[in-house]
């Protein structure tokens, strides 16, 4: 063990995940999968690694490719023993091609997602190097497993939620007229990282923007709103929280929007329960906002899942077909994700919840 560094979590958790995935591969007559997206790589290996390459056959042991001199540390942080080093990217691609052909694979799975390393360029290269191999999208298989959290995942998400709450308290304390979005984000980011969040996200908006990477030249007005969105992680699992703060006297429309948003939040909590279709809740919220005079301000998509990504499937805000997904026990959902977009700003009130049989457990 290098400097006392070890794997986070029980290796058996990750071995069982691979075994369940292999069962799904066999059921779908897929010979193996090449996992390149970072979050699924973490899900199966137990560790984060830049430019990941994980090869999972439908039967047998998985293989990981890492850059030369990385193998020793990788083995300390993962349960996978078959780790191959490479010096050139050509060696990596040759290793993947060789693995496919040595095992006589005809159908190979890749994840067609929007995440880093799920590049179209990689797909085209893969197809050129493996012209006789049928490429199959396995995103539904990986996300189907990841959608329902186990106890260890929920523990990590709860810890991430504690960090997120403390970060939002810092935001509330530091916001004042004249401070830039970037200055606010920096104060919050510092707190999150000191508390152990390795990949925090902080969005700050003083203008109507849904997700606002903070600008150094946009400042808190004397009378207005500031919306802060925080994503935190613990052992790579995330929690998500958002709040809108008023500064001075921003006007009656802002107060009305905040009241309506809070009512919608309570409505969503009442309606989100095991067995309910997400789109059923979505339609009720849309109707509520129309009745209250904010129909044109509501951005559709009231929730998304939270886990190894701050936003993952089901993701009704972006991937419309997932609005047909049913709420299930041990899903982790962010509610209400979508803001009310009014001229004064983006009005948000969002928390992370664990779905239980008897209700929702608030994480943030």
UniProtKB/TrEMBL annotation:
Q: Which InterPro entries does the entry link to?
A: Creatin/AminoP/Spt16_N, Creatinase/aminopeptidase-like, Creatinase_N, Pept_M24, Peptidase_M24B
Provide the Creatinase N-terminal domain boundaries: 17-148
- One family from Pfam that matches here is Peptidase_M24
Residues of the Peptidase M24 domain? 155-356
Stored Gene3D superfamilies: Creatinase/methionine aminopeptidase superfamily (3.90.230.10), Creatinase/prolidase N-terminal domain (3.40.350.10)
Q: Which domain of life does the UniProt lineage start with?
A: Archaea
Write down what this protein is called. X-pro dipeptidase related protein (PepQ)
Please give the organism: Thermococcus gammatolerans (strain DSM 15229 / JCM 11827 / EJ3)
Where is the organism placed in the taxonomic lineage, from the top? Archaea, Methanobacteriati, Methanobacteriota, Thermococci, Thermococcales
């Amino acid at each position: 063990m290098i400097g006392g560094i070890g794997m986070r979590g029980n290796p058996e958790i990750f071995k069982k995940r691979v075994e369940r995935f292999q069962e799904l591969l066999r059921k779908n007559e897929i010979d193996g999968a090449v996992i390149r997206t970072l979050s699924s790589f973490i899900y199966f290996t137990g560790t984060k690694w830049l430019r990941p390459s994980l090869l999972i056959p439908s039967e047998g042991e998985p293989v990981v490719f890492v850059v030369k001199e990385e193998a020793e540390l990788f083995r300390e942080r993962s349960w996978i023993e078959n780790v191959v080093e490479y010096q050139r990217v050509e060696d990596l691609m040759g290793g993947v091609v060789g693995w496919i052909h040595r095992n006589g694979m005809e159908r190979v799975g890749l994840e067609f997602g929007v995440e880093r390393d799920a590049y179209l360029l990689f797909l085209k290269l893969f197809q050129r190097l493996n012209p006789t191999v049928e490429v199959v999208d396995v995103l539904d298989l990986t996300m189907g497993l990841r959608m329902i959290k186990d106890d260890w995942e929920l523990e990590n998400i709860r810890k991430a939620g504690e960090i997120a709450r403390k970060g939002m308290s810092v935001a509330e304390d530091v916001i004042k007229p004249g401070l830039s979005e970037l200055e606010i984000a920096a104060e919050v980011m510092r707190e999150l990282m000191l508390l152990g969040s390795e990949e925090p996200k902080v969005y700050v908006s003083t203008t109507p923007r849904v997700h606002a990477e903070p600008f150094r030249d946009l400042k808190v007005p004397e009378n207005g709103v500031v919306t802060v969105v925080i994503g935190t992680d613990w052992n790579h699992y995330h929690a998500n929280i958002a709040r809108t703060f008023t500064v001075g006297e921003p006007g009656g429309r802002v107060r009305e929007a905040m009241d309506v948003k809070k009512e919608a939040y309570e409505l969503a909590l009442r309606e989100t329960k095991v067995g309910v279709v997400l789109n059923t809740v979505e339609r009720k919220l849309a109707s509520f906002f129309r009745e209250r005079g904010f129909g044109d301000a509501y951005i559709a998509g009231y929730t998304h899942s939270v886990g190894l990504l701050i936003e993952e499937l089901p993701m009704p805000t972006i991937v419309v077909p997932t609005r047909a997904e049913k709420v299930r026990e041990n899903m982790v959902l962010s509610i209400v994700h979508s803001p009310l977009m009014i001229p004064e700003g983006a009005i948000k009130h969002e928390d992370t919840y664990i779905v239980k049989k008897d209700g929702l457990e608030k994480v943030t």
